[in-house]
Amino acid sequence: MTVPATAERPPQAREAAIVVRDLSKKFGDFVAVDHLTFEVQPGRITGFLGPNGAGKTTTLRMLLGLIRPSSGTGLINGVTYAALPRPLETVGAALEATNFHPGRTGRDHLRVLAATHGIPDSRVDELLTLVGIPAAANKRAGGYSMGMRQRLGLAAALLGDPEVLVLDEPSNGLDPEGIRWLRGFLRHLASEGKTILISSHQLSEVEQTVDDVVIIANGQLVRQGTMDELHGEPAALVRTSDSRGLITALRAGGLPALDEPAQGPGAVRVGTGNLAQVGDLALAAGIPVHELRVLRTDLERLYFQLTEAPERQNRNRGEVAATAPPTAAPPSTPGPAAATEGGQR
Ligand SMILES: Nc1ncnc2c1ncn2[C@@H]1O[C@H](COP(=O)(O)OP(=O)(O)OP(=O)(O)O)[C@@H](O)[C@H]1O
């Protein structure tokens, strides 16, 4: 959720650790990121979501100083990446898990990175264990599965024990057990107060992991808020053979209720998440209840509506991207060692 202006800010709210302000990136005439503004709060996991080509990676690369914005700013703890005094200890990044030196072992990869930042080897072994690949540590990274590379990228991002983690599609290539592990791992890091921003092109992939969402389409913000806000007001679905009588009884009991024909015959939607209250009111009125459950927002549908609405038909797909292949970041551009070593696009 966007933190309100200072005057109305609740006392417990903390400063946003990541602030993206009016950020834009043009590649020639093509606008990949379009006046994007959002904030990411510490101690929370934020999903940065959007379909393929929406501009997620481009935004993250600007935030991490790997490419220059055309306009606007991306700040981490109040400054640009380039101005961070100890970048590896402030922000850990894993932008893509494919570019490890194939001939180098996982352990050596981390050791090289650690050595260049004065981090002891003991931290390397600690992290290999923490991310669950101690046995693979002495194998060449070229033989790693996608999931193992993701874990190695995560270890690299965590080397400096940073306060902020930026992970591009971290569950790509993980099996269901790996995804569950990642969820618990990130949750633990967030509970320690770390700020975690993870990108994904699918809401369903991260909906159980994230606290907040920033959804973009065609480089523009389409929604920012908490998962609870995305789910909307709680509602119950109750099915009965007497929907008229039930609606009257529920309304008399102070609950908003109306027919919900989309859910089939006899379905009534009630504006509460309190199923017991619904059941009790129905019982008191002597009305049979055939089904009673929480009515969940179809998040997949909502996400699709937000990102694939006709006016948002993805202009990134097709001709422009095809004629303008991605170029490498300019050599002078500063960038996080973890992301560079761990694979920048
Ligand atoms: N260096 C570049 N030159 C030209 N176009 C680029 C460059 N980098 C990215 N783009 C284009 O910008 C758009 C946004 O790309 P980006 O990689 O940021 O999207 P994304 O949301 O991360 O997508 P995905 O989920 O597929 O990774 C795409 O159309 C892409 O082709």
Task: Please explain how this structure is put together.
This protein is of the alpha/beta class and 345 residues long. It has 2 domains: 18-226, P-loop containing nucleotide triphosphate hydrolases (Rossmann fold); 235-295, Alpha-Beta Plaits (2-Layer Sandwich). The protein is built from 13 helices and 13 strands. The longest helix is centred in the middle third of the chain and has 16 residues, at 176-191. The two termini are 29 Å apart. Residues 1-12 and 318-345 have low confidence and may be disordered. The structure holds adenosine-5'-triphosphate. The site of adenosine-5'-triphosphate has 17 residues, from strand 2 and helix 1. Adenosine-5'-triphosphate binds at residues 27, 30, 32, 50, 52-58, 201, 316, 321, 324, 326-327. Residues 335-345 have a biased composition (Low complexity). Belongs to the ABC transporter superfamily. Keywords: ATP-binding, Nucleotide-binding, Transport.
Overview in brief:
Helices cover 32% and strands 22% of the residues.
Annotated CATH topology of the largest domain: Rossmann fold
Tell me about the largest β-sheet. 6 strands, mixed
Give the distinct bound molecules. adenosine-5'-triphosphate
Count up the helices: 13
The percent range for helix content is 25-40%
Distance between the termini: 29 Å
| Overall average pLDDT | 85
- Which CATH class of the largest domain is shown? Alpha Beta
Strand tally is 13
CATH architecture of the largest domain: 3-Layer(aba) Sandwich
- What is the general shape? elongated
Rounded to an integer in angstroms, the radius of gyration calculated over CA atoms is 24 Å
Low-confidence parts, pLDDT < 50 over ≥5 residues? 1-12, 318-345
Strand order of the largest sheet: 5-6-7-3-8-9
User: What's the number of domains?
Assistant: 2
Keywords: ATP-binding, Nucleotide-binding, Transport
Organism: Ornithinimicrobium ciconiae
Protein name: ABC transporter ATP-binding protein
GO molecular function, one term: ATP binding
